[in-house]
Specification:
five-stranded parallel beta sheet; Rossmann fold; alpha/beta; 48% helix; 464 residues; Helicase, Ruva Protein, domain 3
């Protein structure tokens, strides 16, 4: 059975608590801070109930807070439940600020206290599993910050290992925010080119007339203000890797120039006539359907087959199961250290909210929400509202219309419909104001536009 340490100087309350908890837990008891710490060191319980008003201090509170401080200093993940009188509410809140899991007022109702203790054990178990998984993946994955335990991510890791040893062109696909550049960097770092440069460029963020010069460089006098010869990204990536993000946004004219490079391994600068040989590996990425783009003529079929020798598709975060809480724990550790905050973990409700949310912005959105939560959280346990995941952010199946809408379909289809409902509802609530809707959803405006196009949602952007 799980160990529970009861620190209480009142013999009647001690007897009541031992009698009420002994059937479910291995109960250990102490009446003062010194004895409590001796027992704590011996059995290392994950849950402690601690009387805030331990003697001998006259104000009836300092000794309890001192005991709490010692426990958390030795084992920060311990769940300490402060047992207090109604008059000690201020000190109870101070204890929570110091890191206590919860507090409970006397007189004690054993049913209620038992529920709090069981929840504390459940949360401790989840945190322990996530920590072990985090350590295991950090040790074994080795993919430049990439973490994941689902079968799809393990398959991606295996593919990266295999393709990295070659110079094959790689196409990375997936929704915005899934980590396509991380995959490209992992291929580069695992390859024999890792001592060379990794150059990334977003083809959708640069106008066509500038993108050509950015990629291929230009000769002096090639166009107005071309006062000197300039190398392009292909040349800067010599002996390394060039990552072309959002390649689906590239014009067909530049697609033809890229195709020639992939075929001949030579290029010409803008305004130049000399063929320049370049030893650069190309990895491309997109979040649009290139097969559909080929059908409507916006993407060249011959280029598609050139760049997709190896294809790696990254699953959306909502389909990655336990990876959501794993990544959330990693981001929580990152930002608590960055902002020097004393946050210990997630409440059960927060963990449930993480799993229920559809994550339209994927890993990027998850990190955004965790950063916000760490900055704004008042307590030491992250709650759903700290991450902006309140009841409105999750499915409400009490509505009969929703019951009919989600009945008899697969989980994947249900998540798709839920995402459509969520995005459509937020956009409608903001009367088509994409900027405000994107802020509420925790995604960028381009990502929201992509999702609106993906689901063919009707909207007119408001100016207000």
């Amino acid at each position: 059975m799980d160990n529970v340490l009861i620190v209480e100087d009142d013999s009647d309350i001690q007897t009541q608590m031992k009698w009420g908890l002994s059937k479910d837990f291995q109960v250990h008891q102490a009446t003062n801070r010194i004895d409590a710490m001796k027992i704590f060191d011996a059995v290392m319980p994950m849950v402690v109930t601690l009387d805030l008003g331990l003697p001998p201090d006259e104000d009836g509170s300092t000794e309890g807070l001192a005991c709490l401080h010692e426990i958390l200093k030795k084992a920060p993940r311990t769940k300490v439940i402060m047992v207090t009188g109604n008059e000690d509410r201020d000190n109870a809140l101070k204890a929570v600020q110091m890191g206590a899991y919860d507090f409970y007022h006397k007189p004690i109702d054993m049913k209620e206290l038992k529920i709090i203790i069981q929840r504390a054990f459940h949360l401790s178990q989840l945190e322990g599993e996530n920590l072990q998984l985090h350590m295991l993946l950090n040790k074994e994955a080795g993919f430049v910050g990439m973490l994941g335990q689902c079968s799809e991510m393990n398959s991606i890791f295996e593919t990266i290992q295999k393709v990295a040893t070659t110079d094959a062109t790689v196409m990375v696909t997936g929704e915005s925010g899934t980590g396509k550049e991380l995959v490209a960097r992992a291929v580069h770092e695992k390859s024999g080119r890792n001592s060379g440069p990794f150059i990334a460029i977003n083809c959708g963020a640069i106008p066509e007339e500038l993108l050509e010069s950015e990629l291929f460089g230009h000769e002096k006098g090639a166009f107005t203000n071309a006062f000197a010869q300039q190398k392009g990204k292909f040349e800067y990536a010599e002996k390394g890797t060039l990552f072309l993000d959002e390649i689906g946004e590239m014009s067909t004219r530049l697609q033809a120039k890229l195709l020639r490079f992939l075929q001949e391994r030579t290029m010409q600068r803008v305004g130049g006539r000399k063929d320049i040989e370049i030893d650069t590996r190309v990895i491309a990425a997109t979040n649009i359907d290139l097969e559909a783009a080929m059908k409507d003529g916006s993407f060249r079929e011959d280029l598609y087959y050139r760049i997709s020798v190896i294809s790696i598709n990254i699953p959306p975060l909502r389909d990655r199961g336990a990876d959501i809480t794993l990544l959330a724990s990693v981001f929580l550790d990152k930002y608590t250290a960055m902002f020097n905050k004393k946050i210990k973990g997630f409440s059960p409700e927060a963990l449930e909210a993480l799993g229920n949310y559809t994550w339209p912005g994927n890993v990027r959105e998850l990190e955004n929400k965790l950063q916000k939560a760490v900055i704004t959280a008042d307590g030491v346990i992250i709650q759903p509202e700290d991450m902006g995941l309140d009841k409105e952010s999750r499915a409400n199946f009490s509505n009969d219309r929703l019951k009919d809408r989600y009945a008899g379909i697969t989980l994947k289809e249900a998540r798709k419909r839920l995402e459509m409902d969520l995005i459509g509802g937020v956009v409608e609530r903001h009367r088509g104001n994409i900027k405000r809707a994107a802020e509420e959803l925790g995604v960028s405006r381009p990502t929201l536009y992509d999702l609106i196009d993906k689901y063919d949602l009707s909207t007119k952007e408001s100016d207000t």
